[in-house]
Design a protein that fits this description.
6-stranded mixed sheet, alpha+beta, 22% strand, Creatine Amidinohydrolase, Creatine Amidinohydrolase, Chain A, domain 1
Length: 359
């Protein structure tokens, strides 16, 4: 019950309750997703306030034991800030916890105008610090999301040809994932070919795929709210010697990093292992982003495996391992897997072939 973890934290800091207006925290705390509502974590319960659009569904989930035991569902019919004020008064709360990264200036001002004699104060990463380490249930959901993503890669290899456009491939990946159990996309699909593949976060266009060049696909599914993330770079046609050298460098950099990752190693050091391989091959200036990031309910979570990170990996972290080389105006390569950090190494969660594929 995530609400009880959060309450234990805020109680030790002298808070009576914690208020969450953002959708991600609400889902994490209640196991129910809505686009309009709030969650208040107090000593007695995790109160989920939602309007009539979601109330019946939430009540059904509660009856079916799909919500955490401490979650109670409340219907609100008037302004949500008035409802918040009434609830805070009903539990005699005097000091309310807010996460400063998850509330706007306007929301805070409205709260202060509605809630009299209440102290609003901040505690950073109230939920996020617990989300760093995944539970078995969360890991299972991410595994399922990735299995859908892997199936999409196998499917798309039979769809790609020289007459397809980047947009057509992106759309087919998204359609396939939806048809095979995804309840959403983890992020906007990247499908970039030829010169466009030198753009790490390039946007698909209506251009046809470039023959005898790299084609990078970075995409992911959402399953039960949890994200997957995978990148594969293939060649439509034949790769020349330079392309093979670049691809093999990225392949080796990823493999070395995956061998190094385990509980207790620093995120910065993991990044350096991959970066050193690329630098030693003469491509250091063409690897500009970090080695990887954590993910879960959001596509980018902490910890991050970057040169500036001060984090250390622990058992239960899930991080991407995605080194790349990008030659401006020419092409780029990225290979990305997700791994689960274990005591003595890491478990690869990504099953798609990552050898150089020439179609």
């Amino acid at each position: 019950m995530n609400g009880r973890k959060v309450f234990s934290d805020i109680k030790s800091e002298g808070f009576d309750c914690a208020l969450f207006l953002d959708e991600t925290s609400q889902y994490y705390l209640s196991d129910f997703y809505s686009t309009d509502g709030t969650v208040i974590v107090s000593e007695s319960e995790t109160a989920l306030f939602i309007d009539s659009r979601y109330f019946e569904a939430a009540e059904n989930d509660k009856k079916a034991d799909k919500l955490s035991d401490d979650v109670n569902v409340y219907l609100f019919r008037k302004n949500i800030f008035e409802v918040i004020a009434e609830y805070i008064a009903s539990i005699s709360a005097k000091k309310v916890c807010l996460d400063p990264a998850l509330i706007t200036v306007k929301q805070l001002q409205t709260l202060k105008n509605k809630c009299f004699d209440i102290e609003f104060s901040y505690l950073s990463d109230v939920c996020l610090k617990h989300r760093r380490v995944k539970t078995k249930e969360e890991i299972d959901k991410i595994r399922k999301a990735q299995s859908i993503t892997d199936k999409a890669f196998s499917h798309i290899l039979g769809f790609i040809n020289k007459d397809r456009t980047e947009l057509e491939v992106a759309a087919e990946l998204e359609y396939f994932m939806r048809c095979n159990g995804a309840n959403g996309l983890a992020f906007d699909t990247i499908a970039v070919s030829g010169k466009n593949s030198s753009l790490p976060h390039g946007v698909p266009t209506d251009s046809k795929l470039t023959e005898n060049s790299f084609f990078t696909m970075d995409y992911g599914a959402k399953y039960a709210g949890y994200c997957s993330d995978m990148t594969r770079t293939i060649v439509l046609g034949k790769a020349d010697d330079e392309m093979k050298r670049i691809y093999n460098t990225v392949f080796t950099a990823q493999a070395e990093a995956m061998k190094y990752i385990k509980a207790g190693v620093s995120c910065k050091a993991a990044d350096k292992v991959a970066r050193d391989v690329i630098t030693d091959a003469g491509y250091g200036e063409y690897f500009g982003h970090s080695l990887g990031h954590s993910l879960g309910l959001e596509i980018h979570e902490l910890p991050s495996c970057s040169p500036k990170s001060e984090d250390t990996l622990v058992v239960g972290n899930i991080v991407t391992v995605e080194p790349g080389i990008y030659i401006p105006g020419k092409y780029g390569v990225r290979i990305e897997n997700m791994v689960l950090v274990t005591e003595n190494g890491c478990e690869n969660l990504t099953n798609s072939d990552k050898s150089l594929i020439e179609l």
